[in-house]
Amino acid sequence: MCVGGGGRSYPQPQRPEFDDSPPVVTGMQTGVENPKDTKKATEELKIRRQKKEGTYVDPNLAAVEQKLSRSGGGPKTKQQRDNLARNKQRAKDSALARKMKRTAPKGQGAGAMRSDIRFKENVSEVGLSKSGFKIYEFNYKNDDTRYRGAMAQDVITKLPEAIETHDGYLYVNYDMIDINMEVI
């Protein structure tokens, strides 16, 4: 005698492990072109469930909201604008100092290099070249590495063709003067 009513047993649908876990796809869902495309079917069912629950967030809208909510968006106070400008300049100065270490090995000049006094601090005159250019020791702002070289503002008075300008700052072409830019 059969106690369970006899006959066939049907597989029970799998229940999600958690309430917010994606639905289990069996390949029998509608609205998907290929029922074997379980990834797409799962995503479709997940979106339907979220819409039904009222928790669905359109990914395009979410991306726009995320961009607008970043610190870069929206109006800034004067202090915030000043801080951003100061931080950008510090980053440029640090990058320049790192670049100078790579392009000016000890005892070797390296073509046109940024030598504007606006990027330097702790400047002291230490000598005079044979051609009459003043030699300085200094460090770039936000960098403790000491350098020896020329000052663009001095070179421009004696040999203007050795000066280049980029972004409003002066560069000295060390190949044209008798001073080497060097790390000391």
What structural keywords apply?
alpha+beta, 4 helices, 184 residues, 18% strand
Shape: rod-shaped
Determine the mean pLDDT: 74
Total of domains:
2
- Beta-strand segment tally: 7
Fraction of residues in helices? 25-40%
| Distance, first to last CA | 100 Å
Written account of the structure:
- The chain has two domains: 15-59, no CATH class; 94-183, no CATH class.
- The protein is 33% helix and 18% strand.
- The protein has four helices and seven strands.
- It has helices at 38-53, 59-69, 78-103, 152-158, and strands at residues 112-114, 120-128, 134-140, 146-149, 163-166, 169-173, 182-183.
- It is rod-shaped and about 110 Å long.
Give a concise summary.
The chain has helices spanning about 40-55, 60-70, 80-105, 150-160; strands spanning about 110-115, 120-130, 135-140, 145-150, 165, 170-175, 180-184. By secondary structure, it is of the alpha+beta class.
How would you summarize the topology of this molecule?
Layout: H1 38-53, H2 59-69, H3 78-103, E1 112-114, E2 120-128, E3 134-140, E4 146-149, H4 152-158, E5 163-166, E6 169-173, E7 182-183
Antiparallel strand pairs: 1-6, 2-3, 3-4, 4-7, 5-6
